[in-house]
Structures are given as structure tokens and as C-alpha cells.
Specification:
The chain starts with a strand and ends in a 5-residue tail after the last helix. It has helices spanning 11-22, 38-44, 62-72, 83-100, 102-111, 118-138, 152-161, 174-182, 190-200; strands at 2-6, 27-31, 51-54, 57-60. Helices cover 53% and strands 9% of the residues. Helix 1 packs antiparallel against helix 7, helix 4 (83-100) runs parallel beside helix 7 and helix 5 (102-111) runs antiparallel to helix 6. The structure holds glutathione (GSH). The site of glutathione has 11 residues, from helix 1 and helix 3.
Length: 205
């Protein structure tokens, strides 16, 4: 059986949980707390979740896990079969992690400082909010970010973008509050709003 090292409310774990359920795969869950990462450190040599263990294969990193699942269990797919379409999805995944996430990460770093730079927070907040329009356009005449069907793009982006509408009252992580506060839909972005509801209805492993 597959084993998944996870932590409550983890965005990167939810990426994998969506993908596993889409592929009909079950996992044994190993919950860690951020105060004690010894379980995940022992198995993977680093302290971040998610980590997937498949017999003697240990895969850290959410996007690497999505790719591993696709390679080993290609049906139903999460990546397009056509080379060019797949390259486009690779670009999206890289952009989301390396560019889009920089702004909420920067706000978090700023708010953790003794004397946060309000102007910088405001600028990053405006950029986060501007990005909503991009997702709204990606959802033009289709139900998911890369087409009619769920793909790795939806798995990767949903756990972050969902905070525009959803937030568990038990979830007190600063990063998640930042996503919630700076991605408000304010009654607009109807396609993005419907996509959040659509993906949220899906099962998670
Ligand atoms: N690049 C990694 C990042 C993993 C990551 O940052 N996981 C968070 C949970 S969402 C974590 O373990 N945080 C604990 C910490 O940063 O101390 C991935 O995509 O899986």
C-alpha cells in the first residue's frame, strides 16, 4: 500500500490527495506535526510534506509526486498525452510554484518581520489580486484550467486559490490567512468561483 506523509491543512499535501483520489488510489496516511518532523525526516531525509512512499521508492515534493503517479498509473490521466500540451502544463506548474507563489510567500516573510513594510505588502497584494483575472480567463469556455477535465494544473493550483472562497475556521496558518485576505473575489470572477466549488466537490485521498 502507498504511504503518504501529511500534515493537517497542508496545501501541498492537498495537491497529492486530489490526484490520488482522481486515480482511485488509496493510501495509508502518516500525519506529522510541524513541531515534530522526525517521522518524515527519517523516511525522506528532509522535513517537508508531502512525501509519498511506494515500497522502496520515496518521493518528496508535491509536483514530483503528481508526475510519479502519472508515470505509474496513467489512467485516468492528469497530464495531456500530446507533447506540446504537456509542455504547456509543465510551464504552468513551474510558473505557479516559482512565480505565482512568490507573492504570498513575500507577504508572509514581511508580516513575520518586526517592522513590516506596508507598501511592499500592498504591492504584493495587488499583484496577487491581479492574478485572479488570469485564472478567470484560463477558465473561459472550459471547466478546468487546462481543458474540460481535471489536470495536474487544477491539483496544483486549487489548494491555494480555494482560499479566495473557503477557509476552515480551525485553520490558523498565517500563509493561509494571507491567501484568504488577498484573493477575495468580491462578487466577481464567476468562472473562478464556480471552478473552486467544482474542484472542492471532488474526493481527496
Ligand atoms: N516543494 C514542496 C514544498 C513542501 C512544503 O513546503 N510543505 C509544507 C506544507 S504545505 C511544509 O512541510 N511546511 C513545513 C515548513 O515549512 O516548516 C512541495 O511542493 O511539496
Amino acid at each position: 500500500m502507498l504511504r503518504l506523509y501529511r500534515a493537517p491543512f497542508s496545501t501541498n499535501v492537498e495537491r497529492v490527495a486530489l490526484a490520488l483520489a482522481h486515480k482511485g488510489l488509496e493510501v495509508e496516511s502518516m500525519f506529522i506535526s510541524y513541531e515534530d518532523r522526525s517521522l518524515v525526516e527519517e523516511v525522506s531525509g528532509q522535513g517537508l510534506v508531502p512525501v509519498l512512499v511506494d515500497d522502496d521508492v520515496v518521493v518528496p515534493d508535491s509536483v514530483a509526486i503528481l508526475r510519479y503517479l502519472e508515470e505509474k498509473w496513467p489512467d485516468p490521466p492528469l497530464f495531456p498525452a500530446e507533447t506540446a500540451r504537456r509542455a504547456e502544463l509543465d510551464v504552468f506548474l513551474d510558473w505557479f510554484n516559482q512565480v505565482w507563489k512568490v507573492r504570498p510567500n513575500a507577504i508572509e516573510a514581511e508580516l513575520e518581520r518586526q517592522d513590516p513594510d506596508d507598501a511592499r505588502v500592498k504591492e504584493m497584494s495587488a499583484r496577487m489580486h491581479d492574478s485572479l483575472d488570469l485564472f478567470e480567463r484560463l477558465l473561459d469556455v472550459r471547466d478546468h484550467l487546462f481543458g474540460q477535465d481535471l489536470s495536474a494544473a487544477d491539483c496544483a493550483a486549487f489548494p491555494f486559490l480555494k482560499y479566495a472562497k473557503l477557509r476552515d475556521p480551525e485553520d490558523d496558518e498565517l500563509f493561509h490567512r494571507i491567501l484568504h485576505d488577498h484573493l477575495q473575489l468580491n462578487g466577481g470572477f464567476p468562472r473562478l468561483s464556480a471552478w473552486i466549488d467544482r474542484v472542492n466537490e471532488r474526493p481527496r485521498a
